[in-house]
Specification:
Number of helices: 9
CATH superfamily of the largest domain: YgfB uncharacterised protein family PF03695
Largest sheet: 2 strands, antiparallel
Organism: Trabulsiella odontotermitis
Order of helices and strands: HHHHEEHHHHH
Strand order of the largest sheet: 1-2
CATH topology of the largest domain: Four Helix Bundle (Hemerythrin (Met), subunit A)
CATH architecture of the largest domain: Up-down Bundle
Number of domains: 2
Protein name: YecA family protein
Helix content: 40-55%
InterPro entries: SEC_C_motif (IPR004027), YgfB-like (IPR011978), YgfB-like_sf (IPR036255)
Distance between the termini: 48 Å
């Protein structure tokens, strides 16, 4: 796998791929992906790639039907390369860390769009247990959630232009602060308990192992 920052064409390819295979539950663009990866790297414990890659698409049922293995592998490799670049900036070069916010041109001006990045960050937060943050770190998370949850949009509508700009400027420092906190205070991952099925299985019922045989001819033996 290549290392270093993705170039413009690679970021555009990721963006187009997310748009092509996306759905109402998936990450919608490369800005949201960047935010999600930042939160995953900042989590209180490691999150397996198999888990967060499914979350990118909104679950196992929404994984794309790739054109071919090459397309799938390119998406995964570019995503991992971008994630590695974010990790390096967060951990070693924080002065170079910059969220990949979107932009929009309006009346001849280029506007910064932070919602997708913040929504992605909160999507990543949902993959781990972030409870127990001290007050200052909770405020940092709230600064990101302000733009990353629809429930706060009405509040944002009441902001003055200066208040809105200030809220945007708090996002990057908040992400760095949360990364530093969980790096210094990691949690053990929650161990999922096996699901018990206490319902009695009849001897002539299909075996729960999925073999297609009757229970008496399979696992009951």
């Amino acid at each position: 796998m290549k290392t270093g920052p993705l170039n413009e064409s690679e970021l555009e390819w990721l963006d187009d791929t997310l748009a092509t295979y996306g759905n109402e539950k998936s990450v919608i663009d490369v800005s949201e992906l960047d935010g999600m990866l930042t939160a995953i790297l900042s989590a209180p414990h490691d999150i397996e790639p198999a888990d967060w890659l499914l979350a990118v698409w909104g679950g196992a049922d929404a994984v794309p039907r790739w054109k071919d293995e090459r397309e799938r592998d390119r998406f995964i490799n570019l995503t991992l390369q971008h994630m590695s670049d974010i990790a390096e900036r967060l951990g070693e070069y924080p002065d170079q860390f910059e969220p990949l916010f979107g932009t929009r041109e309006e009346e001849g001006q280029i506007l910064t769009i932070v919602e997708e990045w913040c929504f992605g960050y909160m999507r990543g937060v949902a993959l781990a247990d972030w409870s127990g943050l001290p007050d200052d770190q909770q405020r940092a998370l709230d600064a990101i959630a302000l733009h990353g949850k629809e429930e706060h949009f009405e509040r944002l509508d009441t902001f003055t232009a200066d208040e809105f700009i200030d809220s945007i400027e708090q996002i990057a420092p908040a992400a760095l602060s949360l990364f530093d906190y969980w790096t210094a205070h990691p949690k053990a991952p929650v161990v999922q308990q096996p699901v018990r099925n206490d319902a009695k299985i009849g001897r002539n019922d299909p075996c729960p192992c999925g073999s297609g045989k009757k229970y008496k001819n399979c696992c009951q033996k």
